[in-house]
Amino acid sequence: MSESNNLEAIALRIRGELVKISNQANTPHLGSSLSCVDILVAAYWGALNIDPNKPDSPDRDRLIFSKGHAATTLYLALNMKGFISNETLATYAKSGGILPEHPVYKSAPGIEATSGSLGHGLPLGLGVAVSARIHKIDYRVYVVMSDGECNEGSVWEAAMLAPAQNLDNLAVIIDANQWQATGRSKDITGISSLKGKFEAFGWSSGDIDGHDVNALAKVLQKVPDGSGKPVAVIAHTIKGKGVSFMEDNNNWHYRIPNEEEVKKAPKEMGLT
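Request: output the structure for the sequence above.
Response:
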């Protein structure tokens, strides 16, 4: 099987598991979790220099998952990469478990930051990227954010500082699924043209199909991209991607699939 098919197959498998876990754990944010699957697959399987046997290696690349409400996707990716065991994954959102509904730093191998309070991932990533330079270690920092998260002022403070510090080892990938918890992103804060906004702040910025996992992997592999600037990838996605009755339907920000829907979704994906 080619690399292309491998990445797509991994993404499909994660989507199927997401629907089941949301039902089993009785946890929301399924639409947001489905929209960022291809981004994480492209990063973890196509770009990041990481080793599950050396999760704390000083020269590892770091992925900071700022849109913490979609933590299930992160946990599944880390499980399939060998960082989180099946036994640990089974404790997700359970009393006494170590995987809460939002990621907690070092609660399990591969979790690089506590997140879920939106707007903090990019400032954290900036600091980690600066640390690489101070300690003369050659690693890259990837921050995965949501478009709704760009409401936060702390995002733009970091966006101004990163180019001034010439942090070309820093990349942000924005899961631009066009929705926030209470409505369309453009209707709430008018965050259109994120590419232009990041360019105006001094970033090397570009738009991409956020569900073309192979194109995403190629872009993420090329960080730094030779411009001397931090990189902003605006990944245009669909909330609820992969399940027809969930796609672009903001009810699935909080809705949890019932047993019938859990059976229907995998059939649509060709998983049963």
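The chain has one domain: 3-269.
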